[in-house]
Write a structure and sequence with these properties.
- The protein is α/β, with parallel strands linked by helices.
- The chain is built from five helices and seven strands.
- A seven-stranded mixed sheet has the order 1-3-4-2-5-6-7, with helices on both faces.
- A hairpin with a 2-residue loop joins strand 3 and strand 4.
- The N terminus is likely disordered.
- Bound molecules: guanosine-5'-triphosphate and magnesium ion.
C-alpha cells in the first residue's frame, strides 16, 4: 500500500521561513509535533551559516566569529509541521566547564526525548575533519533512530586533495550516511542538501 503523505513537500518549503523562538531549555520548545531538522556540530563549524545559506537569508540564524555564540536553541518554522533547529555548538574549550557540561547534557536530552527530531545535519569544518565529539553525536543519533547527514563546511578554504581526504574519512567511518561538501561563502553544495531533505522527508511524512 502506498504510504500516506502528510507533509507539504513543495521545494518552496524553504522559501518562507519564520524565526519562531529561542529556547534555553527543551521544555520551552514548541510542542513535539510534526518534524524537526537540527543542525549539530562543533562551535564555529558553520551551523548558523549553513541554515542561512539553505534559506537564502543573510541573518535569520545568527553567525559569529566568536565560537560558542549560539547558546540557545533557535527554532525556525518552515511550514505548519516542519521546523529547522539551530543548536549551540559543542567542543569549545574556552566555555566554562559547568556551562559546557550543561549544553552537552541538553543536546543528549534533546536527541533522546524529542520525537519530532528525525534528521540531524552534522556540520564539520573541512579543515578539521570529523572529531570524537562529532562521533559521539552521530552515535547518539543512530541509537535514537535519527537520520544523519554529514555536511562538510568551508570547502572554499581547502584544496581538492584535502576535500578528498575528508570524503575518505567520512566514507570509512560512516558509509551509511550521506555526505555533502558546502561553502556558505561561495553558496556551494546547498542545493544538494535541500534536494536530499525533500526526498527524505517524503519517506518520513
Ligand atoms: P556557533 O553557533 O558558535 O557554534 O557557530 P556556528 O557553527 O553556528 O558557526 P557560524 O555559522 O557562526 O560560522 C562561524 C564562522 O565561520 C563565521 O566567521 C563564518 O563567517 C565562518 N564560515 C561559515 N561558513 C563558512 C564558509 O563556507 N566559508 C568560510 N570561509 N567561512 C565560513
Ligand atoms: Mg551558530
Amino acid at each position: 500500500m502506498k504510504e500516506k503523505r502528510t507533509m507539504n513537500l513543495d521545494p518552496k518549503i524553504f522559501s518562507s521561513p519564520e524565526f519562531l523562538l529561542s529556547a534555553s531549555k527543551i521544555e520551552q520548545m514548541p510542542k513535539d509535533e510534526g518534524l524537526e531538522i537540527a543542525f549539530v556540530g562543533r562551535s564555529n563549524s558553520g551551523k548558523s551559516s549553513s541554515i542561512n545559506a539553505i534559506l537564502g537569508r543573510k541573518s535569520l540564524a545568527r553567525t559569529s566569529k566568536t565560537p560558542g555564540r549560539t547558546q540557545l536553541i533557535n527554532v525556525i518554522r518552515l511550514t505548519e509541521d516542519l521546523r529547522l533547529i539551530d543548536l549551540p555548538g559543542y567542543g569549545f574549550a574556552k566555555v566554562k566547564e559547568t556551562i559546557r557540561v550543561g549544553w552537552e547534557r541538553m543536546l543528549t536530552d534533546y536527541f533522546i526525548k524529542r520525537q519530532s527530531l528525525k534528521l540531524i545535519l552534522i556540520t564539520v569544518d573541512i579543515r578539521r575533519g570529523i572529531k570524537e565529539l562529532d562521533q559521539v553525536m552521530i552515535s547518539l543519533a543512530e541509537e535514537n533512530g535519527i537520520k544523519v547527514y554529514i555536511v562538510f563546511t568551508k570547502i572554499d578554504k581547502v584544496s581538492r586533495n584535502d576535500r578528498e581526504k575528508c570524503r575518505y574519512q567520512s566514507l570509512s567511518l560512516y558509509p551509511q550516511h550521506a555526505i555533502f561538501f558546502t561553502s556558505s561563502l561561495k553558496n556551494m553544495g546547498f542545493d544538494e542538501v535541500k534536494k536530499s531533505i525533500i526526498d527524505d522527508l517524503s519517506l518520513m511524512g
